[in-house]
Each structure stands twice: as C-alpha cells, then as structure tokens.
Amino acid sequence: MKLNDYFWGSLSLNTQDYCDKDGNLFITQAYAMTVYSSQGLTIDGDSFVYYTTGMDRANTYVACSRQKDSSHIFLNSAEIKNKNESVLVSHYAESMKSTQESQLASNYLNRKNNAHSNLIKSF
Fold it and tell me: For strand 2-5 and strand 9-12, is the pairing parallel, antiparallel, or unpaired?
C-alpha cells in the first residue's frame, strides 16, 4: 500500500505485516499528545507510548496509565549504543525508576559557590 500526500510525501508499507489471519487490513484514526496534556484523561482502548530516556518514573506512570485496555511501550534503541536486548531492557528499567524532581536555581548556585570555596581553600 502506498499513501501520497502533498505536504508529507509518500508512505509505503507492506500490508502483509499488518493484516489479520483473514487478510483484512484495519486502519484507524489515532491521536497524539504529550504526557503532560494526557494527565487526567481516560482513554477507551489501547495507548501507545514512545518512550525515551528523558522520561522519569512520574512521566512513565502517567503515560502508561491513561488507557482502559492495554499500554504498548515503544523504545528508541538508537539512544543506546549497545544494541544487546538485555542491556537495553536494564537501561530502560533504570531510566523508568529514576526521579527528575524540579530543582531551584538556588540549589545549583549553592553547589557552584561551594565548589569555588573549596578551590580557594586548596590554594
């Protein structure tokens, strides 16, 4: 199947990869949104999450808990140099456990000032 669009160009796909056992191809309209904008929603059906290492535990929870049926997570293996599946899984598991709490600028200034004062003491 080949789809043509004036703005986006063309898209070709092998329909055999997407057909059911009877050879029927089902295409439906879908919506995309950010994790932030999906908070508070309940989605009838499945959700598909494009996961990147920039997401933390809170983002992952929100992204994967909006649907009534199934949540499918797609990982970007290009983010990780090692393509070994067990390494990818463990890397993403660690990323999903992390917390990226908001930090105030003053926290960074205090660290920077402490580092400078330690340098001055060493001279």
Answer: antiparallel
DSSP 77: G
Neighbour tally for 63: CB within 10 Å: 23
State pTM to two decimals. 0.55
Q: How far apart are CA 28 and CA 55, in angstroms?
A: 28
Radius of gyration of the chain (CA): 22
Distance CA 91, CA 55 (A): 12
What is the Cα–Cα distance from 76 to 50, expressed in whole angstroms? 8
Interval 79-100: pLDDT, tens = 766 667 777 778 777 777 777 6
